[in-house]
Amino acid sequence: MARTGRRHVAGPSDGGVVPPEPSTVDLHAHTTRSDGVLEPATLLHAAHAAGVRTFALTDHDTLAGYRDVTTSGAVPAGLTLVPGIEINALVTRDLGLWEGELHILGFGMHPDDDAFEAALIQQRDERRVRFARTVERLREIGLPIDAQVAELEPSDDDALGRPTIARALMAAGHAASVEDAFTRLIGHGGPGYVRRGGLGPEDAIAAIIAAGGIPVLAHFREAPERIELLRELQEAGLAGLEVYYRAFDAATTAELEVVARTLGLIATGGTDYHGDLGPYAASHAQSWVPPEVGTRLLARLECR
Ligand SMILES: [Zn+2]
Ligand SMILES: [Zn+2]
């Protein structure tokens, strides 16, 4: 989940990206198995119907959605599904980062890699601790969501997060929207904010690589001003940068294209669809990911 995705949806009137044609690639999306609102199979069909042919489910800390659709035969014919993940990594050094986090996407991990699954289990445990503490804190400040949360019943493979909390706050009448919940209550510095635990960025990168995946830095708008940090992450194995992102305007995208080219990072892109801003087709229509982004990633995964 990106701050940019919450607070601002770029459109043509404010320098937003105008897709020259419907994107055939989306390498960033979330389902009910983490903090999205659509079931994995439903999201896949919505993406396919919108014209997407190379797709990645990048649920936080779980490959459960990928396993759901591949084992049940729910991947539409003609759609290439890449195993994906997003790990929200905690940065312990004070680098002035938003929420003190860097979000690391991974593509092409072996879905049956035991060490990777063990790392994800630990991440999900950290999420459950943070989730419970947040519910507790909200109760303490007079904004209980216990009844709403009791209805969720997540499995061990699921990785619920703050958007889930935000929707519970809406259902309980404590917030007007997910954005409102983040801005006033559960975002960094808010009265209901609880710091996350878990992997740091270097560890997340290492875990993705060890499982055969390609690690990519997600929605990092500040990239042009943080070249040194990017080089450090590259030293640790970072291989890509999310250049095409629904909430980036055209100028930001152009700058990130240059950064990726200069540093030799593979460019990726996607909608970061969660479901709070409307149907998938609407997010897709506001996004542009060039088709060669899909072909290059698939080629890179082929020649591992
Ligand atoms: Zn994110
Ligand atoms: Zn995301």
- Reading side by side through the largest sheet, how are the strands ordered? 1-2-3-4-5-6-7
As a whole number of angstroms, the C-alpha radius of gyration is: 18 Å
The CATH architecture can be given as Alpha-Beta Barrel
Q: Main beta sheet: strand number and arrangement?
A: 7 strands, mixed
The SS-based structural class is: alpha/beta
CATH domain class name = Alpha Beta
**Separation of the first and last Cα atoms:** 29 Å
User: How many DSSP helices?
Assistant: 12
What does this structure look like?
- The chain has 304 residues and is of the alpha/beta class.
- The protein has one domain (3-116, 200-302): TIM Barrel, CATH 3.20.20.
- It is 41% helix and 13% strand.
- It contains 12 helices and 7 strands.
- It has helices at residues 3-7, 40-49, 64-71, 114-140, 146-150, 162-171, 178-186, 201-210, 227-235, 250-263, 280-285, 291-302; strands spanning 25-26, 54-57, 80-90, 101-107, 214-217, 240-245, 266-270.
- Strands 1-2-3-4-5-6-7 form a 7-stranded mixed β-sheet.
- The two termini are 29 Å apart.
- Residues 1-13 have low confidence and may be disordered.
- The structure holds zinc ion (ZN) (2 copies).
- Residues 1-2, 86, 103, 218-219 line the site of one zinc ion.
Keywords:
304 residues, TIM Barrel, binds zinc ion, 7 strands
Report a brief summary of the structure:
The protein has helices at residues 3-7, 40-49, 64-71, 114-140, 146-150, 162-171, 178-186, 201-210, 227-235, 250-263, 280-285, 291-302, and strands at 25-26, 54-57, 80-90, 101-107, 214-217, 240-245, 266-270. It is an alpha/beta fold.
